[in-house]
Amino acid sequence: AQRLLGALLTHARGQAGLTRREPFAVANLAEQVLLTRQSRARARSIEVHSVLGPAAMTGDRRLAERLLANLADNALAYNSAPGRIDIMTGRRGDGAFVSVTNTGPVIDATAVDRLTRPFERLENGRTGRPDGSGLGLSIVQAIVSAHAGSLTLCPRPGGGLTVTATFPLSGPSRPAT
Hints:
Layout: H1 2-16, E1 22-25, H2 26-35, H3 38-43, E2 46-52, E3 56-59, H4 61-77, E4 83-92, E5 95-102, H5 136-146, E6 150-155, E7 161-168
Parallel strand pairs: 2-4
Antiparallel strand pairs: 1-3, 4-5, 5-7, 6-7
Helix pairs in contact: 1-5, 2-4, 4-5
C-alpha cells in the first residue's frame, strides 16, 4: 500500500509540473541508479551495459532520478533471463536524452502506447506482477511532460522494448500547468 501511495504521489507531482529547477548531469543520475540495481541484475543473469555520455539539463533532479529508476526497474522486471539491458545518456540535437533497452517478451507494436496509461498492462508477461503497480511508465510520461520533453517506446523485433526520453537542455521556460 505504501509503494502504491508513493507511486501515485510521484505521478501527481509529475503531472503538476515543475516547482523547482536546478542543473544536473543526466549521466551522473543514471550511474547512481545503475549502481543500486547491479546485484539484482546479476542475480537474474541480466547483463547491464551503459554508455553514459554527458548531458546537462535543468529540471527537478528528484523527478529525473525517479524517471531513471522506473526505467531501470521496468527493464529488469520485464526481461528474460539470461538477458540484457542497455542504458545510454547523452546529447541529441539541442536536448539531453536517456534511452533504456531490454530483452524480454515480444510486445505488439499496436499496443505499446497503452504502457504509458495508469494501471495499464499488456498480456505477454507484462501482467499480473505482484511487485508492480502499473504506474511505472505512466510516471515516466508525466515526468517527461513536466520537463517539456518527449517519450518514445519502440518494441524490439526479437522481444523487449526501447524507451527513450528526450529533454530540452534548459528545461521549460515556466512550470507546466
